[in-house]
Amino acid sequence: LQKEKVTQVVEDVKVVPSGAAARPASVNETVRQGNAVQTGTQSRSELTFRDQTITRLGEKTIYNIGGGRTIELGSGQFLLYVPKKAGGAQIKMSPVTAAITGTTVLGQVYPSGIVEFTVLEGTACMHLDRMGQSLQVMPGQRVVYDPVYMKLEDPTYVDLQDQLSSPLVRDFRPLPSAGLIQGEIHSQRQVAAPNGDLDQAVRAAGAASIESAT
Predict the structure, then answer these.
(1) pTM, two decimal places
(2) How far apart are CA 93 and CA 199, in angstroms?
(3) Bridge partners for 104 per DSSP
(4) What span, in angstroms and rounded, lies between the C-alpha atoms of 131 and 73?
(5) Within 13 A of 50's CA, how many CA atoms are on the CB side?
(6) Which residues neighbour 89 within 8 Å (Cβ) at sequence distance 6 or greater?
(7) Distance (Å, rounded) from C-alpha 2 to C-alpha 72?
(8) Mind listing the pLDDT tens digit for each residue in 52-86?
(9) Which of helix, strand or coil describes residue 75?
């Protein structure tokens, strides 16, 4: 993940080369390691790597292309899709790092330092290195980091259907993982019934259903 192509530009999007002044981004240009991409108010962008990993940036976002398969988000909102068998990636969000493989995630870093991270499909592992804390995040779960408490909160379930209203989903071409996300939405609807909380806990533990759990 050392260079990627700009595949969509909405309003004010700039590329900031290392040691140089910012300039407007253009569709199909290549952005390399060490560069940053910034979006202004009511602006969005999409960047695509050669392995078809997709990064989408919301408004007022600062995004740095790191070395290897590491992505750094200084502030703002992002969506990241990593294809299955693509090798995975790491996302650095202030003191929090997320490791993902074959996953679609939404994240946001607020000016206050609060980090929100939601898994739409697949799984992720969240790390808070300085505290030695790690959490596994399942589909439909969100984790919040609050710098006041300096810890990752326990994952909570969110409505995946609501997440599809995000501009990073709604205002772009369909994601390659759209079918997988719809499958997770269907699973959520199945468990939103009697025993729903128990069934969600069972699924988070790795079983397919209450009936199949040991």
Answers:
(1) 0.83
(2) 31
(3) 81, 121
(4) 20
(5) 7
(6) 1, 53, 69, 70, 71, 80, 82, 99, 100, 101
(7) 12
(8) 889 999 999 988 877 667 788 888 999 999 998 87
(9) strand
- Residue 199 in contact with residue 187, Cβ under 8 Å? no
Q: Where are the alpha helices (DSSP H) in 127-195?
A: 160-163, 167-170, 178-191
Compute how many other C-beta atoms are within 10 angstroms of the C-beta atom of residue 39.
24
Longest dimension (CA), the chain: 60
How many other CB atoms are found less than 10 A from the CB of residue 16?
19
Cα angle 136-127-119, degrees, rounded to a multiple of 5:
45
For residue 1, pLDDT beyond 60: no
With a cut of 90, say whether residue 108 has pLDDT above it: yes
